[in-house]
Specification:
single chain, 85 residues, Arc Repressor Mutant, subunit A
């Protein structure tokens, strides 16, 4: 991994005067609003995953199996995806 990073050219960064697009911010706000409106079990799982918890950590905290966490998150993501398509 270190060798691969050494071989990749450094990026120049963002152009001068670049600002985050307003559309990007509104999509993030819309996503958060849809997550807040989800049923409690789904909302908890999605929020934990967005916070960086692993499936194992979510399973331990919620008392679900890792497989059940996986299935529920896939279904919750599909619900969210349908709101944006």
């Amino acid at each position: 991994m270190i060798d691969a990073l050494r071989r990749t050219p450094e990026t120049e960064g963002l152009p001068e005067g670049y600002e985050e697009a307003e559309e990007d911010r509104s999509l993030a706000d819309e996503l958060q609003e849809h997550v807040r409106m989800m049923d409690e079990p789904d909302k908890t799982l999605v929020t934990m995953q967005l916070s960086g918890y692993s499936y194992e950590e979510i399973a331990s905290a919620t008392g679900l199996t890792v497989k059940n966490v996986s299935v529920r998150l896939v279904r919750a993501k599909e619900k969210l995806k349908s709101k944006f398509i």
